[in-house]
Amino acid sequence: xxxxxxxxxxxxxxxxxxxxxxxxxxxxxxxxxxxxxxxxxxxxxxxxxxxxxxxxxxxxxxxxxxxxxxxxxxxxxxxxxxxxxxxxxxxxxxxxxxxxxxxxxxxxxxxxxxxxxxxxxxxxxxxxxxxxxxxxxxxxxxxxxxxxxxxxxxxxxxxxxxxxxxxxxxxxxxxxxxxxxxxxxxxxxxxxxxxxxxxxxxxxxxxx
Length: 208
Ligand SMILES: [Zn+2]
Hints:
There is one protein chain. By secondary structure, the chain is α/β, with parallel strands linked by helices. The chain contains 6 helices and 8 strands. The protein has helices at residues 51-58, 88-100, 116-119, 140-148, 159-175, 193-207; strands spanning 16-18, 23-25, 32-34, 40-44, 66-69, 106-109, 131-137, 183-187. The longest helix is centred in the last third of the chain and has 17 residues, at 159-175. The structure holds zinc ion. Zinc ion binds at residues 5, 7-8, 10, 26, 28-29, 31.
C-alpha cells in the first residue's frame, strides 16, 4: 500500500522519511505523503519461555495494540540460500507498517523478530518510531523441562533443539542489555501465565 507512489506509480520501499510530518518521500519523483509513524512492540524469547501462552492470554484483552504471532507468516523459503523473497523480518515490518496505518501499533510475538540485529537493518525499519523489545526468559531447568514435556510432534524434545534454545535463552539474559536498542526481559521461571500476562500488559500500555 504505502510503497507504491501515488504520483509516479513506482514501487519503492526505501522512501525518504521526513520526521517533521512525518512524510514519506518518493525517491523517484519527490512526491511526499503523510503516514502514521507508530512504535512497534516486540515480545521475544527462546522457545519454551511462554510467548505463545502469554499471547493467547492477552488476545482480546488489549485494545491499544494489534497483537500478532510472527509464526503465522513463516515459510521454509525464508531460510533458503539466495531466496529472492523479502526476509522474514522485512516482511513483518511491512505488515506492521500497513496495519499501523489504521491507527494502532502492532505487538509482535516471535523469536527471530526479537533480535534487534535482524530488525534494525531492514529497509522498512524507517517507517517506525521506536521499536521496543522485551524477551521472556526463564531458568535453564525450567526451560528444558517445558520443552521436553511438549507433545512429540512438535519436535522440541531432542537434545539439539533443547540445547539451541537454552543457548538462546542465555543470550537474552547475558547480552540483551548491551545491545542497541537494549532488550528488556521478564523472567517467567516461577511466574504462572496468569501473573506474567498483567506484567506484560503494563509494559505494552506504557509504550503504545
Ligand atoms: Zn514517485
